[in-house]
Amino acid sequence: MAMNILRSRALLTSPRLMTSAFLKSPYQANYPAMLNTLHTTHNNHTAGLLPSKHWNAERVLSIGLIGIIPAAFLIQNPALDYALAASLVLHGHWGMEQVFLDYVHGETMSKVANASLFAISALSFAGLCYFNYNDVGLTKAVMMLWSS
């Protein structure tokens, strides 16, 4: 039994596994050095977050929303209204970004879609901040809507 465990661990770390077909990704076409090696650090010329870090940030935000939403309704506080506004807009922005990445094809159309997404996200956040500052706040408005 112990030998089987050692063999399976050796297989998981073998170079043969790192070059197998199921580990190859579209990123390898841009980085040919990644074909036969496993890198633990990213190149400095990448723009934005690495896909794995971006995925982690999306998950942290999604889990954070589980706490922010009830806290904003239980504790009526402007800071929580702003945190809720920011997290909802960012969550929606990242979600629509993935939809556009999957379904909008062509260089021009993807640029137009991303530019419109940034504009809509910025306007949404600005509108929610304006509403929080000049009116009753996001959570109080939702509570007033539910009570009527």
Automatic annotation (TrEMBL):
Database matches in Pfam families: CybS (PF05328)
Binding positions (a ubiquinone): Y103
Recorded topology in the membrane: Multi-pass membrane protein
UniProt keyword Mitochondrion present: yes
InterPro entries reported for this sequence: CybS (IPR007992), SQR/QFR_C/D (IPR034804)
Alphabetically ordered keywords of this record: Electron transport, Heme, Iron, Membrane, Metal-binding, Mitochondrion, Mitochondrion inner membrane, Transit peptide, Transmembrane, Transmembrane helix, Transport, Tricarboxylic acid cycle
Parts of the chain that traverse the membrane: 60-76, 112-133
Compartment annotation: Mitochondrion inner membrane
Single annotated GO MF: ubiquinone binding
Residues that coordinate or bind heme b: H91
One GO CC term on file: respiratory chain complex II (succinate dehydrogenase)
Record's keyword annotation contains DNA-binding: no
Top-level division of the source organism's lineage: Eukaryota
Signal peptide bounds: none
Biological process, per Gene Ontology: mitochondrial electron transport, succinate to ubiquinone; tricarboxylic acid cycle
Free-text function comment from the UniProt entry: Membrane-anchoring subunit of succinate dehydrogenase (SDH) that is involved in complex II of the mitochondrial electron transport chain and is responsible for transferring electrons from succinate to ubiquinone (coenzyme Q).
Family: Belongs to the CybS family.
Entry protein name: Succinate dehydrogenase [ubiquinone] cytochrome b small subunit
